[in-house]
């Protein structure tokens, strides 16, 4: 029953979701397994006699929707796995001196539940032994034979998780019998949880959207607590659950196929003045052996039934017993389904990431890479119509946008484990207006790019090389020689470009931009001033957090959580001390630029850089552009030659793949160009595959064909 059901439901899913089904096949969900070690990452070996014969690999961890897609939507636009009676755990030793005589609802401890992706916990709180305890009981009394543990212990596990995971939000739903005045406030304070408290005053009163998850993370308001006791909203500032949430009937009454009645305490499910929807799906008396069946297709069916009952709203919380028991995907697949529905209307959240990547460009014709075209509109999304006269006749569809490696896979690795497309002389743009003092001035210098800075960033460029000079009492971007900027070589005041970068960072809270400055500014604090004026200091990644000795950089997701999303390097050593701007050669190695860096088979270091294989620098940059740019040839330069040079430099760097690849006219290519070069690098870096598109979610070794 298990395997057939799985393949049927994948056939029914949307075209975009096929890649997802495929990666599950790779991960070997439902393959026979003698032991956990035989199952891929995110799976464990489990037996569900009612669902399948023998032992098979089933899921054991959630997909993190924030890292897979993004966290820039309101809190109520995401779904969260919820454990029912999270504290009632098998094998918890009795703590009261008498044996416990009550049932359990979970097998993992709360730390494990959180690590595997549970993000909401249902806890029953009671006065007991002069303290607050977690207890199973009836009639509002906790007894020594039904008590599990003092609440402080579970709350401390939650505190540890929040401290270690600065991008995650945890919701606690209390069935609350505590009568002691400020009893809950005291135990939350003692557990160190008040610093994460999301204030009840910021919760929407009338069915509006919640704040954005990215803002909740930025403010560190990452703990939501709901109580079932109305008076506590007033007396202790703990949100009364039924002001904000609707919920279906729990227990056996909530498991009748095709019906989704509301719980007595909740307003009707379709009351849209409450923005959150919770679906319970567990038996009145837990039956461990049957839970794997309950948590599978029946659960997903109930989510559809409750969607209708809730006025066409998908649940935000799905509460289950023994959350890891399933016939394959279980409660994890249920949450992936909900997030897919909530985020992009697809059957699985993985499809949202892929859809987002594909939807990022406007033209939507049929033309595939290298097929003939007469205009951009003839080409598929992500391609444009281009003529590379050095290589082919006529016009063909070629790539125009990078694959977003954070969205396609995840952003939970160090910054130096990813590759970033870099534009050389990003500011030297064809046809850009003249800003020089004399309106009649003519610019007498070459250009290296065609798109504006904003277009470059929107197409996936993530590192910009800018040459900064003193000019007219300000900082300007300029092509020049000998450290002087002239009217006839100046492009524009740096502030204009920096403001474009600021706007991009503000609009894209999951992205990081790196600036590499060839810096001739002598004015004291000249750069600090212009970065401040552009509003960029708030994104500054501090030089003190950069690895000094070849260690890994911080994780990308932590850089996002701290909003430290602008990494700036200067070529002027003294500024690291004087202005806190990182001196590039302390942190990065780089090959020779210009014609000398384009000799096939040869990758030597640039003079200012230590040797490429110096592993005390964690970042590797490969330059691949001519000394004098020739836009007609860049399409050839940016194609196979570039990828060959990346291989050569990989060897020269002591078997390290480049993090930055710097090119001129980045969109000119014979087909895949610099975008394909990036996909190759990210594939190598992230999963050892020859293309990042071949990486399989959650695996460091498997490659799709
Ligand atoms: C939770 O369980 C894991 C695995 O058994 C164990 O290593 C860890 O110490 C437990 N944590 C707590 C707080 O009980
Ligand atoms: C976040 O993802 C959602 C769903 O795919 C999308 O609509 C939204 O535009 C994304 N936001 C950003 C800033 O990327
Ligand atoms: C992120 O992706 C990498 C590469 O595929 C993988 O090794 C890692 O386990 C993933 N991390 C998470 C938290 O999914």
Automatic annotation (TrEMBL):
Report the GO molecular function annotations.
phosphoric diester hydrolase activity
Mind telling me which Pfam families this protein's record contains?
Answer: PI-PLC_cat
Biological process (GO) annotations held by this record are: lipid metabolic process
Q: Which residues form the signal peptide?
A: 1-27
User: Matching InterPro entries, A to Z?
Assistant: PI-PLC_domain, PLC-like_Pdiesterase_TIM-brl
Enumerate the UniProt keywords alphabetically: Signal
- SUPFAM superfamilies xrefs: PLC-like phosphodiesterases
**Protein name in the entry:** Phosphatidylinositol-specific phospholipase C X domain-containing protein
Organism, scientific name: Dillenia turbinata
Its lineage reads:
Eukaryota, Viridiplantae, Streptophyta, Embryophyta, Tracheophyta
């Amino acid at each position: 029953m298990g395997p057939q059901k799985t393949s049927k439901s994948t056939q029914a899913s949307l075209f975009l979701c096929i890649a997802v089904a495929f990666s599950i096949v790779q991960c070997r969900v439902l393959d026979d397994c003698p032991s956990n070690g035989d199952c891929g990452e995110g799976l464990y070996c489990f037996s569900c006699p009612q669902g399948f014969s023998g032992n098979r690999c089933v899921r054991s961890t959630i997909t993190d929707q924030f890292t897979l897609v993004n966290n820039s939507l309101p809190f109520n636009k995401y779904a969260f796995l919820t454990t029912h009676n999270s504290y009632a755990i098998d094998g918890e030793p009795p703590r009261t001196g008498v044996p416990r005589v009550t049932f359990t609802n979970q097998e993992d401890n709360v730390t494990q539940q959180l690590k595997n992706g549970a993000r909401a916990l249902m806890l029953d709180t009671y006065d007991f032994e002069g303290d607050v305890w977690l207890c199973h009981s009836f009639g509002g009394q906790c007894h020594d034979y039904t008590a599990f543990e003092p609440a402080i212990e579970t709350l401390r596990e939650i505190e540890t998780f929040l401290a270690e995971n600065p991008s995650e939000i945890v919701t606690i739903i209390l069935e609350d019998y505590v009568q002691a005045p400020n009893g809950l406030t005291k135990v939350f304070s003692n557990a160190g949880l008040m610093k994460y408290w999301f204030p009840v005053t910021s919760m929407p009163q009338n069915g509006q959207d919640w704040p954005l998850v990215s803002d909740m993370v930025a403010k560190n308001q990452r703990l939501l607590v709901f109580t079932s006791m109305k008076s506590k909203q007033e007396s202790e500032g703990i949100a009364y659950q039924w002001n904000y949430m609707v919920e279906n009937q729990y227990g056996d009454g909530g498991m009748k196929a095709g019906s989704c009645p509301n719980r007595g305490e909740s307003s009707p499910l379709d009351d849209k003045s409450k923005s959150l929807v919770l679906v319970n799906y567990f038996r009145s008396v837990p039956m461990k052996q049957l839970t794997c069946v309950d948590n599978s297709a029946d659960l997903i069916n109930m989510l559809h039934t409750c969607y209708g009952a809730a006025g066409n709203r998908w649940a935000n919380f799905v509460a289950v017993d023994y959350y890891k028991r399933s016939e394959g995907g279980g409660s994890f697949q249920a949450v992936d389904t909900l997030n897919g529905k909530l985020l992009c209307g697809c059957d699985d959240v993985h499809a949202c990431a892929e859809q987002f990547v594909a939807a990022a460009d406007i033209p939507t014709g049929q033309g595939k890479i290298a097929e003939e075209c007469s205009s951009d509109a003839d080409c598929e999304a992500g391609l444009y119509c281009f003529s590379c006269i050095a290589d082919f006749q006529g016009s063909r569809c070629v790539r125009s946008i990078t694959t977003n490696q954070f969205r396609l896979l995840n952003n939970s690795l160090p910054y130096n484990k990813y590759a970033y497309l870099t534009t050389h002389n990003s500011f030297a743009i064809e046809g850009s207006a003249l800003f020089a003092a004399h309106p009649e001035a003519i610019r007498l210098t070459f250009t290296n790019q065609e798109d504006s800075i904003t277009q470059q960033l929107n197409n996936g460029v993530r590192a910009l090389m800018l040459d900064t000079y003193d000019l007219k009492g300000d900082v300007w971007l300029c092509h020049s020689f000998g450290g002087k900027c002239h009217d006839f070589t100046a492009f524009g005041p740096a502030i204009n470009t920096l403001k474009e970068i600021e706007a991009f960072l503000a609009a894209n809270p999951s992205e990081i931009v790196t600036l590499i400055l060839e810096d001739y500014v002598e004015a004291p604090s000249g750069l600090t001033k212009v970065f401040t004026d552009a509003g960029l200091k708030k994104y500054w990644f501090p030089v003190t957090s950069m690895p000094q000795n070849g260690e890994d950089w911080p994780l990308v997701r932590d850089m996002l959580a701290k909003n430290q999303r602008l990494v700036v390097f200067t070529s002027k050593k003294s500024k690291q001390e004087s202005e806190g701007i990182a001196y590039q050669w302390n942190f990065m190695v780089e090959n020779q630029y210009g014609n000398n860096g384009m000799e096939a088979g040869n990758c030597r270091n640039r003079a200012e850089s230590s040797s490429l294989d110096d592993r005390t620098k964690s970042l590797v940059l490969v330059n691949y552009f001519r000394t004098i740019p020739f836009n007609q040839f860049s399409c050839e330069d940016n194609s196979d030659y570039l990828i060959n040079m990346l291989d050569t430099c990989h060897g020269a760097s002591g078997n390290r793949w480049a993090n930055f690849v710097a090119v001129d006219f980045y969109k000119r290519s014979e087909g895949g160009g610099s975008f394909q070069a990036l996909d190759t690098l990210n594939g190598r870096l992230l999963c050892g595959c020859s293309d990042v598109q071949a990486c399989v979610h959650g695996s460091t070794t498997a490659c799709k064909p």
